[in-house]
Records
---
Amino acid sequence: MGILIRLAITAVALWITTLIVPGVEVSGGSGTETALTLVVVALIFGVVNAVLKPLIKVFGCVFYLLTLGLFALVVNALLFLLTDWIAGALDLPFHVDGFWAAFWGAIVMAVVTWLISVVVPDRWEGR
């Protein structure tokens, strides 16, 4: 159940990102198509982050240390662009217009995901 909640939180954060950041867009026709696209892109984003981010942290730890963690912003933007590329390969109507849109999109995604996660816990207490 926690995975589905995380997926929903990421999809909502992605939707809010498309509303706030120019250059990050979902061009679905109907509301249902847009929602389904957001869920699939959120799944792709989650898989990309789960697989590649730990590897990048291990191999790029020197850059993280030298830049005092600011390199993480660049890595997040590049992972966001990779998500865009995979979505394009799957013919999903999701598009990111370049590095800066990905940079700001990744920042907004991180902040919104964190804010929603504070309000909606992924595990319910008292089971």
---
Amino acid sequence: MTTVLNLKPLTTTLTRSQFYQLCVANPDVPLERSPQGELIIMTPIGGEGGSQEASLIARVVVWNEQTQLGVVFSSQTVFSLPGGGDRSPDVAWVELSRWQSLSQSEREKFPPLCPDFVIELRSRTDRLKPLQDKMQEYLASGLRLGWLINYQDRQVEIYRGGTGVDVVAMPVVLSGEEILPGFRLEIL
């Protein structure tokens, strides 16, 4: 579950610089910022969700180690999206040349780009609509492929740049398509 904190008594919107400073000052609080400058507090996930997330990251890491095509990121990584938001996908992957084109300073802070591939995992307490909105935000920022895995409703929403959203029922075998060539993920 996420909580949007009302900052109106202090400021109309939280700037990207203010958000970065807030995150540095509160490293134990997982935060995101919407394109409208709203502060979003991310609720910690439980054991089941944490295990699922770790398994997904491991699968992408193993594929990436074999192909050496990019860089894999955990849910602790905040990306400063071109659309204005600062978001943390559960799993993210960036094509190697895009990552290497960033300066060392840009890599050390919140990378100023949208990942090429993301996975968002709907936890037990997450509402679906905010996650779908977040996936649309990724698409608007340049996402090439994204999966919203929704165990509660036994479905996966597949987001592709330029083609919209496909919804498939579980169990399913997902393909990394041309974005992550040869990557396959079975969701039971």
